[in-house]
Protein: Formin-binding protein 1-like
Amino acid sequence: MSWGTDLWDQFENLDKHSQWGIDFLERYAKFVKERLEIEQTYAKQLRSLVKKYCPKRSKDDEPRFTSCLSFYSILNELNDYSGQREVVAEEMGHKVYGELMRYSQDLKAERKHHLQEGRKTQQYLDQCWKHMDNSKKKFERECKEAEKSQLIYERLDNDINATKSEVEKAKSQLYLRQHMAEESKNEYAAQLQNFNSEQWKHFNVAIPQIFKNLQDMDERRTVKLGEMYRSFAEVERRVIPIISKCLEGMVTAAKNVDEHRDSGIVVESFKSGFEPPGDFPFEDFSQNIQRTGSDGAIGTPKTEGGKADPKHAVGRTKNKLWLFGKKPKAPTLEDLSHLPPEQRRKKLQQRIDELNKELQKEMDQRDALNKMKDVYEKNPQMGDPGSLQPKISETICNMEKLRSEIHKNESWLAEVEGKHGSRSERRSSADVNHHAPHGRESPEGSYTDDHSQEHRSPPQPDPHEFDDEFDDDDPLPAIGHCKALYSFDGSNEGTLVMKENEVLYVIEEDKGDGWTRVRKQGGEEGYIPTSYVEITLEKNSKGS
Structure:
Protein backbone atom coordinates (compact mmCIF):
# COMPACT_ATOMS: atom_id res chain seq x y z
CA MET A 1 0.00 0.00 0.00
CA SER A 2 1.62 3.18 -1.26
CA TRP A 3 0.66 6.78 -0.79
CA GLY A 4 2.21 7.62 -4.17
CA THR A 5 -0.19 5.42 -6.16
CA ASP A 6 -3.26 5.28 -3.94
CA LEU A 7 -3.22 8.93 -2.81
CA TRP A 8 -1.83 10.59 -5.95
CA ASP A 9 -4.44 13.35 -5.78
CA GLN A 10 -4.41 13.93 -1.95
CA PHE A 11 -1.50 16.32 -1.63
CA GLU A 12 -3.33 18.73 0.70
CA ASN A 13 -4.62 15.96 2.95
CA LEU A 14 -1.15 14.42 3.22
CA ASP A 15 0.18 17.85 4.09
CA LYS A 16 -2.31 18.07 6.98
CA HIS A 17 -1.67 14.48 8.11
CA SER A 18 2.10 14.90 8.28
CA GLN A 19 1.62 18.06 10.34
CA TRP A 20 -0.73 16.23 12.69
CA GLY A 21 1.86 13.48 13.18
CA ILE A 22 4.52 15.96 14.26
CA ASP A 23 2.03 17.72 16.55
CA PHE A 24 1.15 14.39 18.18
CA LEU A 25 4.82 13.57 18.73
CA GLU A 26 5.36 16.95 20.39
CA ARG A 27 2.27 16.41 22.51
CA TYR A 28 3.73 13.16 23.81
CA ALA A 29 7.01 14.96 24.47
CA LYS A 30 5.09 17.52 26.52
CA PHE A 31 3.48 14.66 28.47
CA VAL A 32 6.92 13.21 29.23
CA LYS A 33 8.15 16.63 30.35
CA GLU A 34 5.26 17.06 32.77
CA ARG A 35 5.81 13.52 34.05
CA LEU A 36 9.51 14.13 34.77
CA GLU A 37 8.63 17.41 36.48
CA ILE A 38 6.29 15.44 38.75
CA GLU A 39 9.15 13.03 39.48
CA GLN A 40 11.48 15.92 40.25
CA THR A 41 8.94 17.54 42.57
CA TYR A 42 8.25 14.20 44.25
CA ALA A 43 11.95 13.54 44.80
CA LYS A 44 12.47 17.06 46.14
CA GLN A 45 9.58 16.73 48.56
CA LEU A 46 10.86 13.33 49.73
CA ARG A 47 14.31 14.78 50.39
CA SER A 48 12.76 17.71 52.29
CA LEU A 49 10.71 15.26 54.34
CA VAL A 50 13.80 13.21 55.18
CA LYS A 51 15.74 16.34 56.09
CA LYS A 52 12.89 17.52 58.30
CA TYR A 53 12.85 14.34 60.34
CA CYS A 54 16.65 13.90 60.37
CA PRO A 55 17.74 17.11 62.12
CA LYS A 56 21.37 17.74 62.84
CA ARG A 57 22.29 16.19 66.18
CA SER A 58 25.27 16.54 68.42
CA LYS A 59 27.30 13.45 69.24
CA ASP A 60 25.68 13.17 72.67
CA ASP A 61 22.22 13.18 71.12
CA GLU A 62 22.86 10.25 68.79
CA PRO A 63 19.93 7.81 69.04
CA ARG A 64 20.58 4.46 70.68
CA PHE A 65 17.11 2.92 70.85
CA THR A 66 16.47 0.31 68.19
CA SER A 67 13.17 1.97 67.32
CA CYS A 68 15.00 5.26 66.67
CA LEU A 69 17.84 3.61 64.77
CA SER A 70 15.34 1.71 62.61
CA PHE A 71 13.42 4.90 61.90
CA TYR A 72 16.59 6.69 60.82
CA SER A 73 17.50 3.68 58.68
CA ILE A 74 14.11 3.96 57.03
CA LEU A 75 14.76 7.66 56.44
CA ASN A 76 18.11 6.82 54.83
CA GLU A 77 16.43 4.25 52.58
CA LEU A 78 13.76 6.79 51.71
CA ASN A 79 16.49 9.27 50.83
CA ASP A 80 18.01 6.66 48.48
CA TYR A 81 14.54 6.04 47.08
CA SER A 82 14.15 9.75 46.33
CA GLY A 83 17.50 9.58 44.57
CA GLN A 84 16.12 6.88 42.28
CA ARG A 85 13.13 9.10 41.50
CA GLU A 86 15.62 11.78 40.51
CA VAL A 87 17.37 9.23 38.27
CA VAL A 88 14.02 8.46 36.63
CA ALA A 89 13.42 12.16 36.00
CA GLU A 90 16.92 12.64 34.62
CA GLU A 91 16.71 9.62 32.31
CA MET A 92 13.28 10.68 31.06
CA GLY A 93 14.57 14.15 30.37
CA HIS A 94 17.64 12.96 28.51
CA LYS A 95 16.61 9.73 26.77
CA VAL A 96 12.93 10.42 26.08
CA TYR A 97 12.00 14.08 26.18
CA GLY A 98 15.28 15.37 24.75
CA GLU A 99 15.32 12.71 22.04
CA LEU A 100 11.71 13.45 21.08
CA MET A 101 12.35 17.17 20.75
CA ARG A 102 15.45 16.60 18.60
CA TYR A 103 13.56 14.14 16.40
CA SER A 104 10.65 16.57 16.10
CA GLN A 105 12.96 19.24 14.72
CA ASP A 106 14.39 16.76 12.20
CA LEU A 107 10.87 15.75 11.11
CA LYS A 108 9.84 19.34 10.63
CA ALA A 109 12.85 20.01 8.42
CA GLU A 110 12.30 16.81 6.40
CA ARG A 111 8.58 17.47 5.98
CA LYS A 112 9.27 20.99 4.82
CA HIS A 113 11.73 19.72 2.21
CA HIS A 114 9.33 17.10 0.80
CA LEU A 115 6.43 19.53 0.61
CA GLN A 116 8.60 22.11 -1.10
CA GLU A 117 9.59 19.50 -3.68
CA GLY A 118 5.96 18.63 -4.24
CA ARG A 119 4.98 22.26 -4.68
CA LYS A 120 7.84 22.87 -7.09
CA THR A 121 6.74 19.89 -9.17
CA GLN A 122 3.15 21.13 -9.16
CA GLN A 123 4.26 24.63 -10.14
CA TYR A 124 6.30 23.26 -13.06
CA LEU A 125 3.29 21.26 -14.30
CA ASP A 126 1.10 24.33 -14.02
CA GLN A 127 3.65 26.28 -16.03
CA CYS A 128 3.65 23.65 -18.77
CA TRP A 129 -0.13 23.76 -18.85
CA LYS A 130 -0.07 27.54 -19.26
CA HIS A 131 2.34 27.32 -22.18
CA MET A 132 0.16 24.71 -23.83
CA ASP A 133 -2.98 26.72 -23.19
CA ASN A 134 -1.41 29.90 -24.61
CA SER A 135 -0.28 28.08 -27.75
CA LYS A 136 -3.76 26.64 -28.11
CA LYS A 137 -5.38 30.05 -27.85
CA LYS A 138 -2.89 31.51 -30.32
CA PHE A 139 -3.62 28.71 -32.75
CA GLU A 140 -7.31 29.40 -32.38
CA ARG A 141 -6.82 33.10 -33.10
CA GLU A 142 -4.64 32.47 -36.13
CA CYS A 143 -7.18 30.09 -37.59
CA LYS A 144 -9.95 32.66 -37.19
CA GLU A 145 -7.79 35.34 -38.83
CA ALA A 146 -7.00 32.98 -41.71
CA GLU A 147 -10.71 32.22 -42.19
CA LYS A 148 -11.46 35.93 -42.19
CA SER A 149 -8.72 36.63 -44.77
CA GLN A 150 -10.10 33.85 -46.96
CA LEU A 151 -13.59 35.40 -46.93
CA ILE A 152 -12.19 38.79 -47.86
CA TYR A 153 -10.21 37.31 -50.71
CA GLU A 154 -13.16 35.38 -52.06
CA ARG A 155 -15.38 38.44 -51.87
CA LEU A 156 -12.88 40.63 -53.77
CA ASP A 157 -12.20 37.86 -56.28
CA ASN A 158 -15.92 37.69 -57.17
CA ASP A 159 -16.33 41.43 -57.20
CA ILE A 160 -16.07 42.70 -60.82
CA ASN A 161 -15.46 46.18 -59.56
CA ALA A 162 -12.43 45.19 -57.52
CA THR A 163 -9.09 46.07 -58.94
CA LYS A 164 -6.43 43.52 -59.60
CA SER A 165 -4.15 45.05 -57.02
CA GLU A 166 -6.82 44.73 -54.33
CA VAL A 167 -7.36 41.09 -55.23
CA GLU A 168 -3.61 40.38 -55.16
CA LYS A 169 -3.27 42.12 -51.84
CA ALA A 170 -6.12 40.07 -50.35
CA LYS A 171 -4.61 36.92 -51.74
CA SER A 172 -1.17 37.64 -50.22
CA GLN A 173 -2.84 38.40 -46.87
CA LEU A 174 -4.66 35.09 -47.09
CA TYR A 175 -1.41 33.19 -47.66
CA LEU A 176 0.23 34.97 -44.72
CA ARG A 177 -2.60 34.13 -42.33
CA GLN A 178 -2.66 30.56 -43.45
CA HIS A 179 1.08 30.29 -42.88
CA MET A 180 0.78 31.80 -39.40
CA ALA A 181 -2.08 29.45 -38.58
CA GLU A 182 0.02 26.51 -39.62
CA GLU A 183 2.89 27.66 -37.40
CA SER A 184 0.52 28.13 -34.45
CA LYS A 185 -0.82 24.69 -35.05
CA ASN A 186 2.64 23.17 -34.95
CA GLU A 187 3.53 25.12 -31.78
CA TYR A 188 0.30 24.07 -30.10
CA ALA A 189 0.93 20.45 -30.99
CA ALA A 190 4.44 20.64 -29.57
CA GLN A 191 3.25 22.29 -26.32
CA LEU A 192 0.44 19.80 -25.97
CA GLN A 193 2.81 16.90 -26.40
CA ASN A 194 5.24 18.43 -23.86
CA PHE A 195 2.46 19.02 -21.29
CA ASN A 196 1.16 15.50 -21.61
CA SER A 197 4.69 14.16 -21.12
CA GLU A 198 5.29 16.34 -18.02
CA GLN A 199 1.90 15.50 -16.61
CA TRP A 200 2.62 11.80 -16.93
CA LYS A 201 5.97 12.27 -15.19
CA HIS A 202 4.31 14.35 -12.52
CA PHE A 203 1.65 11.82 -11.58
CA ASN A 204 3.65 8.67 -12.23
CA VAL A 205 7.17 9.59 -11.12
CA ALA A 206 7.59 12.86 -9.16
CA ILE A 207 4.48 12.85 -6.96
CA PRO A 208 4.68 9.12 -6.10
CA GLN A 209 8.31 9.59 -5.04
CA ILE A 210 7.49 12.63 -2.90
CA PHE A 211 4.49 10.92 -1.33
CA LYS A 212 6.60 7.82 -0.70
CA ASN A 213 9.14 9.97 1.14
CA LEU A 214 6.33 11.44 3.22
CA GLN A 215 5.05 7.94 3.92
CA ASP A 216 8.52 6.78 5.01
CA MET A 217 8.86 9.82 7.25
CA ASP A 218 5.48 9.17 8.88
CA GLU A 219 6.27 5.50 9.41
CA ARG A 220 9.62 6.38 11.00
CA ARG A 221 7.80 8.83 13.25
CA THR A 222 5.45 6.03 14.32
CA VAL A 223 8.36 3.66 14.96
CA LYS A 224 10.13 6.37 16.97
CA LEU A 225 7.07 6.86 19.14
CA GLY A 226 6.99 3.13 19.85
CA GLU A 227 10.67 3.21 20.82
CA MET A 228 10.06 6.19 23.10
CA TYR A 229 7.14 4.37 24.73
CA ARG A 230 9.49 1.48 25.49
CA SER A 231 12.23 3.82 26.71
CA PHE A 232 9.70 5.47 28.99
CA ALA A 233 8.94 2.12 30.57
CA GLU A 234 12.57 0.98 30.62
CA VAL A 235 13.57 4.03 32.64
CA GLU A 236 11.19 2.87 35.37
CA ARG A 237 12.22 -0.78 35.02
CA ARG A 238 15.94 -0.04 35.46
CA VAL A 239 15.43 1.52 38.92
CA ILE A 240 13.06 -1.17 40.18
CA PRO A 241 15.89 -3.41 41.55
CA ILE A 242 17.39 -0.52 43.53
CA ILE A 243 13.97 0.61 44.75
CA SER A 244 13.31 -2.99 45.80
CA LYS A 245 16.54 -2.95 47.81
CA CYS A 246 15.42 0.29 49.47
CA LEU A 247 12.12 -1.32 50.42
CA GLU A 248 13.92 -4.44 51.64
CA GLY A 249 16.12 -2.18 53.77
CA MET A 250 13.01 -0.64 55.30
CA VAL A 251 11.63 -4.09 56.10
CA THR A 252 14.97 -5.10 57.63
CA ALA A 253 14.97 -1.95 59.73
CA ALA A 254 11.50 -2.82 60.97
CA LYS A 255 12.69 -6.31 61.95
CA ASN A 256 15.60 -4.81 63.89
CA VAL A 257 13.29 -3.14 66.40
CA ASP A 258 13.96 -4.89 69.72
CA GLU A 259 11.78 -3.90 72.66
CA HIS A 260 13.97 -5.74 75.18
CA ARG A 261 17.09 -3.98 74.04
CA ASP A 262 15.34 -0.61 74.22
CA SER A 263 14.24 -1.38 77.77
CA GLY A 264 17.82 -2.26 78.66
CA ILE A 265 19.03 1.04 77.19
CA VAL A 266 16.53 2.90 79.39
CA VAL A 267 17.97 1.15 82.44
CA GLU A 268 21.52 1.89 81.31
CA SER A 269 20.71 5.54 80.63
CA PHE A 270 18.94 6.37 83.88
CA LYS A 271 20.34 3.93 86.45
CA SER A 272 21.62 6.08 89.35
CA GLY A 273 23.65 3.46 91.18
CA PHE A 274 22.00 4.21 94.54
CA GLU A 275 20.72 1.44 96.77
CA PRO A 276 16.95 1.21 97.39
CA PRO A 277 15.78 2.68 100.73
CA GLY A 278 15.66 0.40 103.75
CA ASP A 279 12.99 -0.04 106.43
CA PHE A 280 11.78 2.74 108.68
CA PRO A 281 13.09 2.37 112.28
CA PHE A 282 10.73 1.89 115.21
CA GLU A 283 10.13 5.17 117.03
CA ASP A 284 9.43 4.59 120.74
CA PHE A 285 7.38 7.51 122.07
CA SER A 286 6.99 5.86 125.49
CA GLN A 287 10.58 6.57 126.53
CA ASN A 288 9.56 9.57 128.68
CA ILE A 289 6.91 7.62 130.64
CA GLN A 290 7.95 7.03 134.32
CA ARG A 291 8.59 3.37 134.91
CA THR A 292 8.64 1.47 138.24
CA GLY A 293 11.80 -0.17 139.43
CA SER A 294 10.49 -3.59 138.47
CA ASP A 295 9.85 -2.46 134.92
CA GLY A 296 13.50 -1.70 134.38
CA ALA A 297 15.02 1.50 133.03
CA ILE A 298 14.58 1.62 129.33
CA GLY A 299 14.42 5.38 128.94
CA THR A 300 17.06 7.24 127.05
CA PRO A 301 19.51 9.44 128.93
CA LYS A 302 18.69 13.10 128.95
CA THR A 303 21.06 15.80 128.02
CA GLU A 304 22.87 17.77 130.61
CA GLY A 305 20.69 20.25 132.48
CA GLY A 306 17.56 18.74 131.06
CA LYS A 307 17.89 20.75 127.89
CA ALA A 308 17.68 19.35 124.44
CA ASP A 309 20.64 19.36 122.13
CA PRO A 310 20.56 22.67 120.26
CA LYS A 311 21.27 20.73 117.07
CA HIS A 312 17.97 18.87 117.63
CA ALA A 313 15.97 21.83 118.90
CA VAL A 314 14.33 22.67 115.62
CA GLY A 315 10.75 22.79 114.41
CA ARG A 316 9.18 19.77 112.84
CA THR A 317 9.21 19.99 109.06
CA LYS A 318 8.13 17.74 106.30
CA ASN A 319 10.88 16.11 104.27
CA LYS A 320 10.33 16.26 100.52
CA LEU A 321 10.01 12.96 98.67
CA TRP A 322 11.53 13.20 95.18
CA LEU A 323 10.90 9.63 94.13
CA PHE A 324 8.12 10.66 91.72
CA GLY A 325 8.59 14.41 91.79
CA LYS A 326 10.88 16.67 89.79
CA LYS A 327 14.28 16.99 91.38
CA PRO A 328 15.92 20.41 91.28
CA LYS A 329 18.37 20.74 88.43
CA ALA A 330 21.94 20.71 89.72
CA PRO A 331 24.56 23.02 88.24
CA THR A 332 26.77 21.28 85.65
CA LEU A 333 30.23 20.66 87.12
CA GLU A 334 33.43 19.67 85.37
CA ASP A 335 33.87 16.52 87.43
CA LEU A 336 30.21 15.59 86.77
CA SER A 337 29.60 15.29 90.51
CA HIS A 338 26.10 16.65 89.94
CA LEU A 339 25.19 13.30 88.33
CA PRO A 340 24.24 10.07 90.10
CA PRO A 341 27.20 7.68 90.56
CA GLU A 342 26.29 5.26 87.77
CA GLN A 343 25.64 8.02 85.24
CA ARG A 344 28.74 9.88 86.37
CA ARG A 345 30.85 6.76 85.89
CA LYS A 346 29.52 6.23 82.34
CA LYS A 347 30.02 9.86 81.37
CA LEU A 348 33.57 9.92 82.75
CA GLN A 349 34.42 6.67 80.95
CA GLN A 350 33.01 8.07 77.72
CA ARG A 351 35.01 11.27 78.17
CA ILE A 352 38.20 9.28 78.84
CA ASP A 353 37.67 7.21 75.68
CA GLU A 354 37.24 10.35 73.59
CA LEU A 355 40.35 11.93 75.10
CA ASN A 356 42.33 8.76 74.36
CA LYS A 357 41.22 8.90 70.74
CA GLU A 358 42.32 12.53 70.48
CA LEU A 359 45.62 11.65 72.15
CA GLN A 360 46.18 8.84 69.64
CA LYS A 361 45.58 11.27 66.78
CA GLU A 362 48.10 13.71 68.21
CA MET A 363 50.62 10.89 68.66
CA ASP A 364 50.13 9.79 65.05
CA GLN A 365 50.59 13.37 63.90
CA ARG A 366 53.78 13.69 65.99
CA ASP A 367 55.19 10.48 64.49
CA ALA A 368 54.37 11.67 60.97
CA LEU A 369 56.05 15.02 61.60
CA ASN A 370 59.14 13.32 63.02
CA LYS A 371 59.37 11.06 59.97
CA MET A 372 59.03 14.05 57.69
CA LYS A 373 61.72 15.87 59.70
CA ASP A 374 64.07 12.89 59.28
CA VAL A 375 63.45 12.91 55.52
CA TYR A 376 64.20 16.66 55.37
CA GLU A 377 67.39 16.18 57.38
CA LYS A 378 68.59 13.45 55.01
CA ASN A 379 67.44 15.34 51.88
CA PRO A 380 67.68 19.11 52.55
CA GLN A 381 66.55 19.90 49.02
CA MET A 382 63.08 18.58 49.90
CA GLY A 383 62.50 21.06 52.72
CA ASP A 384 63.73 22.77 55.87
CA PRO A 385 63.62 20.50 58.97
CA GLY A 386 63.44 23.55 61.24
CA SER A 387 60.12 24.59 59.71
CA LEU A 388 58.49 21.51 61.27
CA GLN A 389 59.73 22.12 64.82
CA PRO A 390 56.95 24.61 65.81
CA LYS A 391 54.31 22.14 64.70
CA ILE A 392 56.02 19.29 66.56
CA SER A 393 56.22 21.41 69.71
CA GLU A 394 52.58 22.32 69.42
CA THR A 395 51.63 18.65 69.00
CA ILE A 396 53.66 17.64 72.07
CA CYS A 397 52.02 20.42 74.07
CA ASN A 398 48.59 19.17 73.00
CA MET A 399 49.57 15.65 74.03
CA GLU A 400 50.59 16.83 77.50
CA LYS A 401 47.30 18.67 77.91
CA LEU A 402 45.36 15.60 76.84
CA ARG A 403 47.33 13.36 79.21
CA SER A 404 46.62 15.78 82.03
CA GLU A 405 42.91 15.73 81.22
CA ILE A 406 42.91 11.94 81.01
CA HIS A 407 44.68 11.65 84.37
CA LYS A 408 42.24 14.04 85.99
CA ASN A 409 39.20 12.21 84.62
CA GLU A 410 40.68 8.84 85.57
CA SER A 411 41.10 10.12 89.13
CA TRP A 412 37.45 11.12 89.24
CA LEU A 413 36.49 7.76 87.76
CA ALA A 414 38.53 5.91 90.37
CA GLU A 415 36.87 8.00 93.07
CA VAL A 416 33.39 7.12 91.75
CA GLU A 417 34.18 3.42 91.42
CA GLY A 418 35.79 3.37 94.89
CA LYS A 419 32.78 5.02 96.51
CA HIS A 420 30.36 2.78 94.70
CA GLY A 421 32.21 -0.36 95.77
CA SER A 422 32.73 0.71 99.37
CA ARG A 423 29.07 1.68 99.68
CA SER A 424 27.93 -1.77 98.63
CA GLU A 425 30.39 -3.40 101.03
CA ARG A 426 29.39 -1.21 103.96
CA ARG A 427 25.68 -1.75 103.32
CA SER A 428 26.04 -5.51 103.21
CA SER A 429 28.24 -5.46 106.32
CA ALA A 430 25.79 -3.30 108.26
CA ASP A 431 22.83 -5.44 107.24
CA VAL A 432 24.47 -8.77 108.07
CA ASN A 433 26.72 -8.13 111.11
CA HIS A 434 24.95 -5.16 112.77
CA HIS A 435 28.22 -4.02 114.39
CA ALA A 436 27.60 -0.30 114.01
CA PRO A 437 27.31 1.42 117.45
CA HIS A 438 23.87 2.63 118.47
CA GLY A 439 23.16 6.23 117.55
CA ARG A 440 26.12 6.53 115.14
CA GLU A 441 25.93 7.10 111.41
CA SER A 442 27.61 5.13 108.69
CA PRO A 443 29.76 6.93 106.12
CA GLU A 444 26.83 6.86 103.71
CA GLY A 445 24.56 8.56 106.23
CA SER A 446 22.54 5.45 107.29
CA TYR A 447 21.99 4.61 110.92
CA THR A 448 21.96 1.16 112.48
CA ASP A 449 20.98 0.02 115.95
CA ASP A 450 22.40 -2.72 118.19
CA HIS A 451 19.80 -5.46 118.72
CA SER A 452 21.64 -6.71 121.83
CA GLN A 453 20.60 -3.56 123.67
CA GLU A 454 17.03 -3.61 122.46
CA HIS A 455 15.57 -4.06 126.01
CA ARG A 456 17.99 -1.78 127.85
CA SER A 457 17.32 1.46 126.00
CA PRO A 458 14.73 2.53 123.45
CA PRO A 459 15.88 2.68 119.82
CA GLN A 460 16.75 6.08 118.47
CA PRO A 461 14.97 7.40 115.36
CA ASP A 462 16.84 6.49 112.20
CA PRO A 463 15.89 9.05 109.56
CA HIS A 464 18.79 8.08 107.26
CA GLU A 465 17.55 4.58 106.63
CA PHE A 466 16.50 5.73 103.13
CA ASP A 467 18.66 7.15 100.36
CA ASP A 468 15.69 9.06 99.00
CA GLU A 469 13.63 11.51 101.06
CA PHE A 470 10.34 10.52 102.69
CA ASP A 471 7.98 12.53 104.84
CA ASP A 472 8.88 12.27 108.54
CA ASP A 473 7.40 14.04 111.54
CA ASP A 474 10.68 14.03 113.59
CA PRO A 475 13.59 16.23 112.52
CA LEU A 476 16.88 14.61 111.48
CA PRO A 477 19.86 15.11 113.79
CA ALA A 478 22.58 17.49 112.68
CA ILE A 479 25.79 15.72 111.64
CA GLY A 480 27.79 18.88 111.11
CA HIS A 481 27.56 22.45 109.93
CA CYS A 482 28.44 24.40 106.80
CA LYS A 483 29.16 27.96 105.73
CA ALA A 484 27.74 29.36 102.51
CA LEU A 485 30.44 30.44 100.04
CA TYR A 486 27.87 31.82 97.59
CA SER A 487 24.25 32.82 97.60
CA PHE A 488 21.64 30.37 96.28
CA ASP A 489 18.12 31.39 95.28
CA GLY A 490 16.48 28.00 95.92
CA SER A 491 13.95 28.54 93.13
CA ASN A 492 13.34 24.82 92.49
CA GLU A 493 11.02 22.71 94.58
CA GLY A 494 12.80 21.09 97.55
CA THR A 495 15.73 23.53 97.56
CA LEU A 496 16.54 26.06 100.27
CA VAL A 497 17.29 29.77 99.91
CA MET A 498 20.81 30.53 101.18
CA LYS A 499 22.74 33.75 101.64
CA GLU A 500 26.50 34.17 101.43
CA ASN A 501 28.36 33.47 104.74
CA GLU A 502 25.19 31.99 106.27
CA VAL A 503 25.81 29.08 108.69
CA LEU A 504 23.51 26.05 108.42
CA TYR A 505 23.25 22.60 110.01
CA VAL A 506 24.15 19.60 107.84
CA ILE A 507 21.60 16.82 108.34
CA GLU A 508 22.42 14.63 105.34
CA GLU A 509 25.63 14.27 103.33
CA ASP A 510 25.96 14.46 99.56
CA LYS A 511 24.90 11.09 98.10
CA GLY A 512 26.94 11.67 94.97
CA ASP A 513 24.34 13.79 93.12
CA GLY A 514 25.91 17.14 94.08
CA TRP A 515 23.27 18.12 96.69
CA THR A 516 23.53 18.34 100.49
CA ARG A 517 20.54 18.48 102.82
CA VAL A 518 20.71 21.22 105.45
CA ARG A 519 18.59 22.92 108.10
CA LYS A 520 18.41 26.60 108.95
CA GLN A 521 18.44 27.99 112.47
CA GLY A 522 14.69 28.46 112.23
CA GLY A 523 14.09 24.80 111.42
CA GLU A 524 13.50 25.10 107.64
CA GLU A 525 15.06 22.19 105.71
CA GLY A 526 15.99 21.73 102.08
CA TYR A 527 18.76 20.97 99.58
CA ILE A 528 21.63 23.19 98.48
CA PRO A 529 24.48 22.59 95.98
CA THR A 530 27.42 20.93 97.73
CA SER A 531 29.89 23.07 95.78
CA TYR A 532 28.30 26.25 97.17
CA VAL A 533 29.25 25.57 100.82
CA GLU A 534 32.20 24.67 103.04
CA ILE A 535 31.19 21.65 105.15
CA THR A 536 32.50 20.64 108.56
CA LEU A 537 31.24 17.30 109.88
CA GLU A 538 31.18 16.22 113.51
CA LYS A 539 33.83 13.63 114.41
CA ASN A 540 31.33 11.19 115.89
CA SER A 541 29.30 11.23 112.66
CA LYS A 542 32.07 9.67 110.57
CA GLY A 543 32.23 6.28 112.26
CA SER A 544 31.53 3.14 110.34
Remarks:
- Confidence is low (pLDDT under 50) at residues 293-326, 426-473.
